[in-house]
Amino acid sequence: MKTKTIRVDYLARVEGEGGLFIKVRDNRVVDVKLRIFEPPRFFEAFLRGRNFAEVPDITARICGICPIAYQMSAVHAMENALGVKVNGQLRALRRLMYCGEWIESHTLHVYLLHAPDFLGYQDAIAMARDHSGVVQRGLQLKKVGNEIVTLLGGREIHPINVRVGGFYKVPSRRELEGLAEPLKRAREAALETVRWTATMPFPDCEQDYLFVALRHPHEYPLNEGRIVSNRGLDIAVGEYEDHFLEEHVEHSNALHSVLKLQGPYFVGPMARYSLNFDRLSPLAQEAARQAGLTPVCRNPFKSIIIRSLEILYACDEALHIIAQYEPPEQTAIPTPVMATTGCACTEAPRGSLYHRYRISDQGTVLDAKIVPPTSQNQRVIEQDLSQFVPKFLTLPEQELGWRCEQAVRNYDPCISCATHFLKLHVDRG
Amino acid sequence: MQKSKMIVIGIGNPYRSDDAAGLLVARRLKEQFISACEVHEQAGEGVALMELWKEAQRVVVIDAVQSGAAPGTIHRFQANLHPFPAPIFRDSTHAFGLIEAVELSRALNQLPSDLVIYGIEGEHFGAGTGPSPAVLNGVNDLVRDLHQEINQFLVSDPPVSE
Fold it and tell me: Domain tally for chain B?
């Protein structure tokens, strides 16, 4: 038996660092391991001893691409702990802010991280030389997402305006109306994005995934809902830890999340879409049909179309929120301080993000648990690669490495909530 | 008010020790040049950077780097003249960060005509607030140098109000 090792210095266009190890024997994949090197409890430890009111600001720094998601899971968890419910226009503003983040995060991924794979370019820079108009469209679309987040958050990145109970400041009606025209243009650009991604070449790769996402009685899920699956799970967020288990896996510093008695599961746009198609706006549903999708999608490469649909939905939803906005009288609901525990789950661009906090009677964080979507997807990424790599084993090593990277990028992984790069090793025993 | 001809952008993460270096430089310069020169603090997200420097003629960017040099060492790159050397800017939380923003701007012919990037060599990028003493020395040195550079620029090409 021959052993060959392929080394890719870093997995490009993915957040963070880790190692991807694939063992091949007699042209069969016998092992796939996704190694994450970052100590897993980094930020959780950092939060201990902090005042609960600081948590939204600190958690926003865990991820530079989805700070809103971390803030939202954090404030909802604190409000759950303290018995506070944010409703009405404050709730609408939070949804609007989340729409802004979905627009900017998904757009960055679709245009600058993932599309180059499908069009045969090394990176977005090479793609921009041939398709400058398309890349400009993506940049303008992302800019609108940034503008929403800046207006509501006070800054584009690491927003400072979000607090437990609401916001420090709320926008005027005129300020929000100022976003309407850019959002209408963004919605058109999003529709173009769906059409564009629908034409890309997709490998024939479907799997019977266990999808998990939030589901809400009326809305496509952002901040709130029950946790559901396509195999019968339907629980309140408070029951999360009764059903989901984190296992420490020897080859990885990050913990692998599994659904008890059912195994690895898939979170993110494709899961949300497949569990909530009926909650999309009519425009987004029609765009999905025109793109050749059915209400359930199981091809992970088509996540690029799904992300584009979610950008479209977010533009649509943002316009809807702005049209009915009236500034609330209170910018925030008062919150008591007491010894308590609370949790929340919101839909980050990459998937369900769970936070739990235990607070002292002085309002200090005693412990924190944060389960990011990427750590929930690790096992299913490994499974995908096990299925996928055999189809490309005859390719030259470098191209095989690139295909593996593309498959990992289907998940838009944020391995950083870490800070390193992915190394690929293929051992052809 | 005429759009800025010169802007300064400090990039970093205040919760990652030496990664705060660029932000500290920006903060100190902002105090010294309150309205005369536009100074921004950024987390390093590439598209936001491209948007900021698109309208400016002269741009100075400061970020922490990791290249193996002594902590506090200051590197200088005239980015608009030639492509980046091997990646040393620590894009700790972004797949599309400073380097990518520069190269994408170049591909789209949107680079400012004068883009200088200063890298302050860092050593510790783990959790923590506040850079190490060696890096702080680098921050102080760069603030002093940029203070002079900005003053020279303002004297030779002052902003004009309409």
Answer: 1
